[in-house]
Design goal:
CATH architecture of the largest domain: 3-Layer(aba) Sandwich
Bound molecules: S-adenosylmethionine
CATH class of the largest domain: Alpha Beta
Number of strands: 9
Strand content: 15-25%
Low-confidence stretches: none
CATH superfamily of the largest domain: Vaccinia Virus protein VP39
C-alpha cells in the first residue's frame, strides 16, 4: 500500500497509536510525484549512499532505497521507529537511527556507515530547524557530495539569492561559500499531511571539493558576513563598526577601501568572493595588530 495514500497513512498511524507531532515539524508527503522527484534529482549516483534526515513514516525513504545502494536515516521521534520497521521491512540496504540530527556525532556516523562511499543528504526538512540543520551539515566538515532538501520556499529563495537583492543575507553568503546552490522546483502546501501554512521548494547544494573562494581565516570571513548583515540598513562601514569591536572605525574604513569598495557601500551588495577579499584584509590587520 502506498505511503502517500491519506487513508492508509491515517490507519497506519492509528494502528501504532501515534499522531502528527507539531513540535517535530511533521508534515508528511502525500503526493508520490514529489518524493520520487527529490530522490531522482538529489544528485547521487546509484552506487552512492544517502543520509536521510527525518524519514517520518518512510515515504521518501522507500524511493531512496530503490534507487541507491545504501540509505541511513536519522529520525528524532521515537514513536516512528516501529512504523519505519514495518514500512521499510522489504529493504536490506537501510539503517534507521533514532536521534537528533543537531546532536548526533556526524563523524562517528560516517565512520560506521559510509566508509568509502560518496554521500548525499536528502530530506524533507522540518521547518522549525531548517537553517541550523543546513549550517551544521555545511560547517561540520563531513565529506558530502550534495545536500538536496525540501524547505520553506522563502528560505530556498534566500539560499539561492544574488547579491543586492532583498533575499540575500548571511545564510546565502555562508551557503554559497560551501556549495553551488540551485532551486529545483516549488512544492505547494497541499502536497503534505497536515498541510503547512507555507509553501515549499527543493534546493540542491553541490558542495565544492575545491572552494572557489579561498580565505586566510574562515572564522574572520563568517564574522565579517554576520556583522555586515547584523545591521542591514546601515552602510557596510557602520555595520562592521557595530559588530566587530576589535577594530576602530578608521581601521575598518581603511580596510574597506583597501579591499576595493566604496565607504558608502552596503554589505548586501558584496558577493561571497568580495566578502573573502575584505575578510583577508581584516585578518591581515588583526594579525599585524597582535604582533605589533
Ligand atoms: N520525510 C518525511 C516525508 O517527507 O513525508 C517526513 C518529513 S517531516 C517534514 C520532518 C521529519 O523530521 C519528521 O519525521 C520529524 O519527526 C523529523 N525530525 C524533526 N526534527 C528532527 C531532528 N532534529 N533530527 C531528526 N529528525 C527530525
Amino acid at each position: 500500500m502506498s505511503l502517500t495514500d491519506i487513508g492508509y497513512v491515517k490507519r497506519l498511524m492509528a494502528a501504532h497509536g501515534i499522531t502528527f507531532q507539531k513540535k517535530f515539524g511533521q508534515n508528511f508527503l502525500i503526493n508520490p510525484m514529489v518524493p520520487q522527484r527529490i530522490a531522482e534529482e538529489c544528485g547521487a549516483r546509484p552506487c552512492d549512499a544517502i543520509l536521510e534526515i527525518g524519514p517520518g513514516i518512510g515515504t521518501m525513504t522507500q524511493y531512496l532505497c530503490e534507487m541507491y545502494e545504501r540509505v541511513v536515516c536519522v529520525e528524532i521521534d521515537r514513536a516512528l521507529i516501529p512504523v519505519l520497521g514495518e514500512t521499510l521491512a522489504d529493504y536490506d540496504n537501510v539503517t534507521v537511527i533514532e536521534g537528533d540530527i543537531m546532536k548526533i556525532d556526524l563523524a562517528a556516523l560516517f565512520a560506521e556507515h559510509f566508509q568509502g562511499k560518496n554521500v548525499t543528504v536528502c530530506a524533507n526538512l522540518p521547518y522549525y530547524i531548517t537553517t541550523p540543520i543546513l549550517m551544521r551539515l555545511l560547517e561540520s566538515g563531513i565529506p558530502l557530495d550534495n545536500i538536496t532538501v525540501m524547505i520553506q520556499r522563502e528560505v530556498a529563495d534566500r539560499l539561492c539569492a544574488a547579491p543586492g537583492t532583498a533575499e540575500y543575507g548571511a545564510v546565502t553568503a555562508a551557503a554559497q561559500y560551501y556549495a553551488e546552490v540551485e532551486k529545483l522546483f516549488n512544492v505547494s502546501a497541499g502536497n503534505f499531511l497536515p498541510a503547512p501554512k507555507v509553501d515549499s521548494a527543493v534546493v540542491r547544494m553541490r558542495l565544492y571539493r575545491d572552494r572557489p573562494v579561498k580565505v586566510e581565516n574562515e572564522e574572520m570571513l563568517f564574522r565579517t558576513i554576520r556583522a555586515a548583515f547584523g545591521q542591514r540598513r546601515k552602510t557596510l562601514l557602520n555595520a562592521l563598526s557595530a559588530g566587530m569591536g576589535e577594530f576602530t572605525k578608521p581601521e575598518l574604513s581603511e580596510a574597506i577601501t583597501k579591499a576595493g569598495f566604496s565607504e558608502t557601500i552596503r554589505g548586501e551588495r558584496l558577493s561571497v568572493a568580495e566578502f573573502g577579499t575584505l575578510s583577508d584584509v581584516l585578518w591581515k590587520k588583526k594579525t599585524q595588530k597582535t604582533t605589533d
